[in-house]
């Protein structure tokens, strides 16, 4: 197993009202191919954790290695590039761009890689297929159901073949049936070797992962394997 | 490792975004449309005015003062009139006037022209023509071009044989495909021999009422002037009208002399004429007047252009700022998916420029109406919209897009991706 993510005594302090500490001295390692849930109550620091892991934010102290590369001191441009090449985001509210078609939404990361249209197209079609969106590729997001929109978002997150999929409450806006569908899709991706980190406060989502990291007041309170990890070397 | 962006890709993106609010986009482009239209009008008027000035200078000559006889509007009867049924209207410049004009300081040459309407006959064809009787120097001061043969010369006035020069158009009408040089032509009972063909007559000089069908003959001053009456036959009466001299071209020593002499010439004519049966044309004055008028319209259109482009620019900035706010989440998404700040700047800047591009193109389309619109108010200008007159305002429009799009684009790029993603 190769180490994919390593956080070393990571702190995040927001300079508001004399300083709000969101993450305190966090150490965390995630191996390639892991399926991890990050849990915690609101204010526990899990959103900050996601932002840091997603290279949207830089830690105040400590180091963050992603794929062996120290990303904690990178410039804004470099971080953009890391997000573009190594990270796949899935959001609670899908975050598709309304004026773009499904295919165009899936292609956005490739667009910022500078890939020409003719090179983007086959890839996005293939991904749409993979997440179970064979048709409706020319439609706009608002013409799809929530579950379908989240599938588009998953396809988009996979477009750049990222090192890690970062999902932020991915089923928070879905009904129980589509929640199961999306979680099945995650299982499937995990089965294919994808590394997935899910930030959630819902137990039934966390149960589907192999490992749960629980945050309280910006500290890692617990870090243990789930029942599903039994027998499966994580 | 990034391949360069395909401009077409970003442009398509802009069109997609603008197409979401077609009405809003159209209204925003309106300022640019009017701005571009006004700049086109400005440039077209400028071009037309300077073309007109050039034409006036070329046709009239900057060193000339031209005095034309003008038929007075009241139908007064002349002194030498006969019975009530046969009257003569005498007006315009007299030989006495000419003698006085010759004394104006700075005059180098004084060339006279007399006009009359006659019927020309040749091999069974007859045609109403305008005859200009003038002196050899006319060709020089009126800048006439000969296409064949020669102009009248001094000896023509005294020779027994009468000679004439035709305009090319008239030569074609009278002689068809045959060479008219040396051919006889019957004009009002006299036989003339054609010795030369003129390219054309200068229109601006008001050479005659029918400059297409003009014949030039030598001016014979000792001949009875009565032979050059123009006879107008009406039922029951016959009016003969004439001016002793229809046109005097004073060629001055230089342009400064023109300026000094023009008021003197006017005063002289005013003194001896109790009615306005003359008009003084000073090319330099005409040009100045032309320029003044053009400048006035230029200022008007420059003002409209400036206001339109400024308001258009502010409108674009405003709409782009609104767009940035509305699409904060989109910006956050794009940043999360790998867009750099400069990509966001590029996207919003392209959108602003696209707006002005469309506005500019529509403005150019509307600009095709400039000749019609401006033609209404500046009738004597031949207004044409040239390529340059379209290119320049187009570039200006794009510049407006760039300038007014920059601030909103920078603001969009400065947004914090996390905040932007959270934006509702």
Summarize the SSE layout with pairings.
The complex is a heterodimer of chains A (234) and B (424).
Chain A: E1 3-14, E2 20-31, E3 35-39, H1 46-53, E4 61-66, E5 69-70, H2 76-86, E6 87-90, H3 102-112, H4 117-130, H5 146-158, E7 164-168, H6 176-191, E8 196-199, H7 203-206, E9 211-216, E10 219-225
Parallel strand pairs in A: 3-8, 3-9, 6-7, 7-8
Antiparallel strand pairs in A: 1-2, 1-4, 4-5, 9-10
Chain B: H1 7-19, H2 22-60, E1 64-69, E2 86-91, H3 95-102, E3 107-122, E4 125-134, H4 138-141, E5 146-149, E6 162-167, H5 168-175, E7 184-187, E8 190-198, E9 214-218, E10 230-234, E11 237-243, E12 247-252, H6 255-272, E13 278-281, H7 283-326, H8 328-336, H9 341-367, H10 370-377, H11 387-414, H12 417-422
Parallel strand pairs in B: 2-11, 4-9, 6-8
Antiparallel strand pairs in B: 1-12, 1-13, 3-4, 3-7, 3-12, 5-8, 6-9, 7-8, 10-11
Short structural description:
The complex is a heterodimer of chains A (234) and B (424). With 234 residues, chain A is α/β, with parallel strands linked by helices.
Overview of this protein structure:
The complex is a heterodimer of chains A (about 230) and B (about 425). Helices cover about 35% and strands about 25% of the residues of chain A. Chain A is an alpha/beta fold and about 230 residues long. Chain A has one domain (about 5-230): P-loop containing nucleotide triphosphate hydrolases (Rossmann fold), CATH 3.40.50. In chain A, the strands form 2 sheets. A 6-stranded mixed sheet of chain A has the order 6-7-8-3-9-10, with helices on both faces. A 4-stranded antiparallel sheet of chain A has the order 2-1-4-5, covered by helices on one side. In chain A, helix 5 (about 145-160) packs parallel to helix 6. The longest helix of chain A has 16 residues, at about 175-190. Chain B has about 425 residues and is an alpha+beta fold. Helices cover about 50% and strands about 20% of the residues of chain B. Chain B has helices spanning about 5-20, 20-60, 95-100, 140, 170-175, 255-270, 285-325, 330-335, 340-365, 370-375, 385-415, 415-420, and strands spanning about 65-70, 85-90, 105-120, 125-135, 145-150, 160-165, 185, 190-200, 215-220, 230-235, 235-245, 245-250, 280. Residues about 75-85 of chain B have low confidence and may be disordered. The interface of A and B includes residues 97 and 116 of A.
């Amino acid at each position: 197993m190769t180490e994919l993510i390593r956080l070393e005594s990571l702190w995040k302090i927001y300079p508001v009202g004399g300083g709000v500490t969101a993450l305190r001295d966090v150490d965390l390692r995630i191996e390639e191919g892991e399926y991890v849930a990050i849990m915690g109550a609101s204010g526990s620091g899990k959103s900050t954790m996601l932002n840091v892991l997603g290279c949207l934010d830089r830690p105040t102290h400590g180091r963050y290695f992603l794929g062996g590369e120290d990303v904690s001191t990178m410039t804004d441009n470099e971080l953009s590039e890391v997000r573009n090449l190594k990270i796949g985001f899935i959001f609670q509210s899908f975050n598709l761009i309304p004026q773009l078609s499904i295919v165009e939404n899936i292609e956005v990361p490739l667009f910022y890689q500078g890939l020409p249209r003719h090179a983007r197209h086959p890839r996005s079609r293939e991904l749409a297929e993979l997440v179970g969106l064979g048709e409706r590729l020319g439609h706009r997001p608002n013409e799809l159901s929530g579950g379908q929109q989240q599938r588009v978002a998953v396809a988009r997150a996979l477009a750049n073949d990222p090192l890690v999929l970062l999902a932020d409450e991915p089923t928070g806006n879905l009904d129980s049936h589509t929640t199961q569908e999306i979680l099945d899709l995650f299982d499937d991706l995990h089965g294919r070797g994808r590394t997935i980190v899910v930030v959630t406060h819902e137990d039934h989502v966390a149960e589907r992962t192999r490992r749960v990291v629980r945050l309280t007041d910006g500290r890692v309170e617990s870090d243990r394997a789930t029942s599903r990890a039994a027998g499966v070397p994580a | 490792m990034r391949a360069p962006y395909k401009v077409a890709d970003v442009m398509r993106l802009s069109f997609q975004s603008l197409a979401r609010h077609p009405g809003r986009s159209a209204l925003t482009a309106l300022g640019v449309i009017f701005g571009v239209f006004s700049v086109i009008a400005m440039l077209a008027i400028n071009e037309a005015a300077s073309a007109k000035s050039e034409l006036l200078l070329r046709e009239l000559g900057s060193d000339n003062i031209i005095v034309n006889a003008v038929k007075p509007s009241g139908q007064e009867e002349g002194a030498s009139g006969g019975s009530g049924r046969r009257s003569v209207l005498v007006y315009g410049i007299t030989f006495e006037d000419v003698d006085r004009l010759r004394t104006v300081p700075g005059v180098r040459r004084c060339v006279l022209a007399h006009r009359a309407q006659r019927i020309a006959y040749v091999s069974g064809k007859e045609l109403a023509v305008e005859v200009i009787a003038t002196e050899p120097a006319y060709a020089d001061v009126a800048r006439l071009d000969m296409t064949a043969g020669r102009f009248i010369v001094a000896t023509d006035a005294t020779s027994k044989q009468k000679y004439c020069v035709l305009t090319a158009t008239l030569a074609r009408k009278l002689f068809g495909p045959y060479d008219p040089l040396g051919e006889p032509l019957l004009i009002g009972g006299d036989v003339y021999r054609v010795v030369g063909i003129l390219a054309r007559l200068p229109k601006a000089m008001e050479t005659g009422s029918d400059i297409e069908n003009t014949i030039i003959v030598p001016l014979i001053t000792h001949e009875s002037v009565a032979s050059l009456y123009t006879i107008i036959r009406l039922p029951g009466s016959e009016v003969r009208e004439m001016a002793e001299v229809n046109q005097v071209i004073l060629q001055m020593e230089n342009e400064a002399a023109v300026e000094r002499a023009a008021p003197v010439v006017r005063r002289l004519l005013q003194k001896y004429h109790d009615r306005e049966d003359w008009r003084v044309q000073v090319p330099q004055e005409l040009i100045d007047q032309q320029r003044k008028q053009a400048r006035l319209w230029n200022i008007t259109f420059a003002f409209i252009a400036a206001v339109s482009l400024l308001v258009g620019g502010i409108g674009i900035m405003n709409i782009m700022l609104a767009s940035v706010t509305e699409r904060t989440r989109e910006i956050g998404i794009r940043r999360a998916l790998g867009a750099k700040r400069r990509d966001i700047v590029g996207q919003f800047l392209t959108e602003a420029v696209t707006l002005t591009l469309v506005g500019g193109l529509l403005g150019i389309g509307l600009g095709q109406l400039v000749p019609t619109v401006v033609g209404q108010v500046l009738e004597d200008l031949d207004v044409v919209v040239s390529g340059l007159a379209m290119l320049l305002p187009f570039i200006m429009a794009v510049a407006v897009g760039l300038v007014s799009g920059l601030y909103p684009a920078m603001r969009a790029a400065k947004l914090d991706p996390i905040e932007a993603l959270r934006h509702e």
